[in-house]
Backbone:
C-alpha cells in the first residue's frame, strides 16, 4: 500500500489543545507517566505506541471517562478540567468498539446520537441524512447495524461522533481489526468529513501506515511521550534505506555486518535490519561477503514508522506493554 | 456544574426513545418476559388453590391473592431485563457515547428510568387484561392509584437495577445479586403468602417490594382490606422514599464511575 502522508502543513496553525504532564495510575501501576503534547488547530495528530502504552488511557482522560489524577489541560490557551462540559461540547469520540445499538438501524442510531448531543429533532434528522451520505451509507440506512461489516460500523461510528459538528475528534484505534480495504475506506470517509471544515483530529494507533496519515505524531512508550514530530522527520532519524536480510544465524550475520561494514544493524521480528544511506550499493556487497547459503534472502525497503519506533524506544510497535489499557 | 436544558433533555429523550425502538424490534422477547410470570401465576395459583385459606379474608382464592404479587413480578422482571444491558452498553456499546456527551450522568439515569417505566406500564396493562380471570373487576379497580404505584415501583427498581449494573460492571455480578437479593425480596414481599409471623413482618416492613405489593392490592380491590398489608398512604409514602433514594444512589454511582 502507498502511504498517504498529508501534504498540508499546520506549522503556523494556533495551538488548540495542550496536554501537560498528565499522569494516571490504576492501583500500583502508573499507566501515564507524564504525557506532554500540543495539538494544533485543524491537524491530524497521532499517538503512536504499542498496545498498553497508555495512549487509550490518555484519550479516556481527555474524553472525561477517566479522572485526570495529575497534569494540566489547555483548550485554546485556556486551562480546562478533563471531562468539563466546555470540553465535552467540543469533542466527538470514536471508541475502539462502536458506540452503536446493533439492533437499531443506521438512521435510528444517528438520530439518537443527535438527541444525545442536544440537537432538536429537525436538526438531528437533517444531519443524519447528510452524514449518511457523507459516509456512503445512505442506501443501507434502514438496515440494523448488526448486519453491517466492521468497516461499515466504523464509518457509521465516525458519522455518529461527527453529528454535532465537534471541533476536536478523538479516535481510539480507528482502524483496529479492519482489513486493508476497510482501512482505506475508513480514511477516505474521515478525509471526507474533514473536508471544508476546521476539524482537529487526535487519534491513537499502533499501525505504521495509519501513523503516516497524521500531520504529526507523538511516540508514546510506557506511558510517556518520547518524541513529537512529523512522520517524515521521524523517518529521517533512520539513515536512508533499510536492507532486510533473512538468515538462519541472524545474530552472527548482524555482528559480522557491524564489524565489516560499520553499519547499524539490529535483529527485529526474525529479520536482520541494516541501516545505510545507499541500500542498492550494499546489497551486492552483502551477497559477496557471505558464502552461498548463509543468506536466505536480501531485500531493500524504505524505513517505516515501526522501524522508527524501534529505533527510538528499543521496542516493537506490535508488542504488548503490559499496561491495563483504558480500564474503563 | 451548570446544566444546559437542551443537553439534559436530549439525553433523557434519547434514552427513552431507544427503549421504545428496542421494544418495537424485540416484541417477542418482551412477550417472553411477560409469559414467565403468567405461567408462574397460573401453575402455582392452580396448584395452591386447593390448600390456600386466608383467615378473615372470606372467599379469597389463591389465584386472586397471588395475582398482585405476579404483577409485581412483571415489574421486577421487566426492570431486571431492561437494566442488565447497561453493563455491556457501558463497556462497549451505546452508553459510551452518552457518558462523553455534554449532558449529565443523572439525565442518563432518568432517561433509562423513563424508558423502562414505559415498558413496565405497557407490560402491566397487557397483564391487567387478565384481572377479571383472577376475580378483579375492571370497574372496581382504582386505576390512578394503581398506575401511581406501578410508576413508583418501577422507578425505584429500575434505579436499583441501574445502580447494580453500573457498580458491579459484570453481568455475572448482576445475575448473582438478582438471584441472592432481588428474587428473595420478591418472595418475602407478601406476593406469595401473607407475611404474618413476627420476623417476616419485620422483613416486610423494610422490604420496598412489599409496599409495591400492598399498594397494588389496595388499588385492585379497594374494598377487600383484609389482605392488603400496609395501608395505601403508608405504601405510597414508602414507595416515594424508595424511588427518591434509589434514583439518588444510581445517579451518584453513574457520576462516580468512569
Residues:
Amino acid at each position: 500500500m502507498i502511504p498517504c502522508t498529508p501534504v498540508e502543513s499546520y506549522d503556523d496553525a494556533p495551538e488548540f489543545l495542550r496536554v501537560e504532564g498528565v499522569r494516571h495510575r490504576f492501583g500500583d501501576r502508573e499507566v501515564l507517566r507524564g504525557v506532554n503534547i500540543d495539538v494544533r488547530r485543524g491537524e491530524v495528530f497521532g499517538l503512536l505506541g504499542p498496545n498498553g502504552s497508555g495512549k487509550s488511557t490518555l484519550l479516556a482522560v481527555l474524553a472525561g471517562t477517566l479522572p485526570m489524577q495529575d497534569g494540566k489541560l489547555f483548550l485554546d490557551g485556556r486551562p480546562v478540567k478533563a471531562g468539563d462540559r466546555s470540553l465535552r461540547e467540543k469533542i466527538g469520540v470514536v471508541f475502539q468498539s462502536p458506540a452503536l445499538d446493533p439492533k437499531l438501524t443506521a438512521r435510528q442510531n444517528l438520530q439518537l446520537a443527535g438527541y444525545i448531543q442536544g440537537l432538536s429533532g429537525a436538526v438531528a434528522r437533517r444531519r443524519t441524512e447528510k452524514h449518511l451520505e457523507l459516509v456512503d451509507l445512505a442506501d443501507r440506512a434502514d438496515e440494523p447495524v448488526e448486519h453491517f461489516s466492521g468497516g461499515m460500523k466504523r464509518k457509521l461510528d465516525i458519522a455518529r461522533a461527527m453529528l454535532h459538528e465537534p471541533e476536536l475528534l478523538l479516535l481510539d484505534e480507528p482502524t483496529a481489526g479492519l482489513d486493508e480495504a476497510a482501512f482505506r475506506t475508513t480514511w477516505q470517509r474521515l478525509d471526507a468529513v474533514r473536508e471544508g471544515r476546521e476539524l482537529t483530529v487526535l487519534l491513537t494507533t499502533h499501525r505504521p501506515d495509519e501513523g503516516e496519515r497524521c500531520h504529526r505524531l507523538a511516540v508514546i512508550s510506557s506511558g510517556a511521550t518520547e518524541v513529537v514530530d512529523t512522520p517524515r522527520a521521524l523517518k529521517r532519524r533512520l539513515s536512508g534505506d533499510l536492507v532486510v536480510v533473512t538468515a538462519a544465524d541472524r545474530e552472527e550475520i548482524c555482528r559480522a555486518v557491524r564489524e565489516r561494514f560499520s553499519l547499524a544493524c539490529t535483529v527485529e521480528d526474525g529479520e536482520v535490519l541494516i541501516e545505510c544511506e545507499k541500500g542498492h550499493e550494499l546489497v551486492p556487497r552483502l551477497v559477496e561477503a557471505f558464502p552461498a547459503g548463509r543468506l536466505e534472502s536480501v531485500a531493500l525497503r524504505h524505513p517505516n514508522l515501526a522501524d522508527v519506533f524501534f529505533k527510538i524506544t528499543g521496542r516493537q510497535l506490535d508488542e504488548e506493554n503490559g499496561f491495563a489499557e483504558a480500564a474503563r | 456544574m451548570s446544566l444546559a436544558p437542551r443537553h439534559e433533555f436530549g439525553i433523557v429523550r434519547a434514552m427513552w426513545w431507544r427503549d421504545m425502538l428496542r421494544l418495537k424490534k424485540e416484541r417477542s422477547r418482551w412477550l417472553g418476559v411477560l409469559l414467565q410470570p403468567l405461567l408462574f401465576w397460573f401453575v402455582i395459583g392452580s396448584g395452591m388453590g386447593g390448600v390456600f385459606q386466608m383467615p378473615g379474608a372470606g372467599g379469597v382464592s389463591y389465584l386472586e391473592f397471588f395475582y398482585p404479587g405476579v404483577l409485581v413480578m412483571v415489574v421486577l422482571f421487566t426492570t431486571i431485563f431492561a437494566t442488565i444491558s447497561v453493563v455491556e452498553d457501558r463497556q462497549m456499546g451505546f452508553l459510551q457515547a452518552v457518558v462523553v456527551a455534554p449532558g449529565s450522568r443523572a439525565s442518563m439515569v432518568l432517561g433509562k428510568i423513563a424508558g423502562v417505566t414505559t415498558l413496565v406500564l405497557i407490560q402491566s396493562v397487557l397483564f391487567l387484561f387478565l384481572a377479571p380471570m383472577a376475580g378483579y373487576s375492571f370497574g372496581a379497580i382504582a386505576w390512578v392509584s394503581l398506575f401511581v404505584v406501578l410508576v413508583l415501583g418501577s422507578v425505584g427498581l429500575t434505579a436499583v437495577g441501574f445502580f447494580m449494573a453500573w457498580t458491579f460492571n459484570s453481568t455475572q455480578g448482576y445475575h448473582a445479586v438478582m438471584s441472592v437479593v432481588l428474587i428473595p425480596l420478591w418472595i418475602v414481599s407478601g406476593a406469595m403468602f401473607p407475611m404474618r409471623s413476627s420476623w417476616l413482618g419485620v422483613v416486610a416492613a423494610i422490604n420496598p417490594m412489599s409496599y409495591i405489593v400492598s399498594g397494588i392490592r389496595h388499588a385492585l380491590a379497594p374494598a377487600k382490606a383484609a389482605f392488603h398489608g400496609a395501608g395505601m398512604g403508608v405504601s405510597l409514602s414508602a414507595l416515594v422514599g424508595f424511588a427518591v433514594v434509589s434514583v439518588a444512589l444510581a445517579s451518584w454511582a453513574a457520576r462516580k464511575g468512569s
Remarks:
- The interface with chain A takes residues 1-2, 4, 6-7, 9-11, 13-14, 17-18, 21-22, 25-26, 91-103, 258 of chain B (CB under 8 Å).
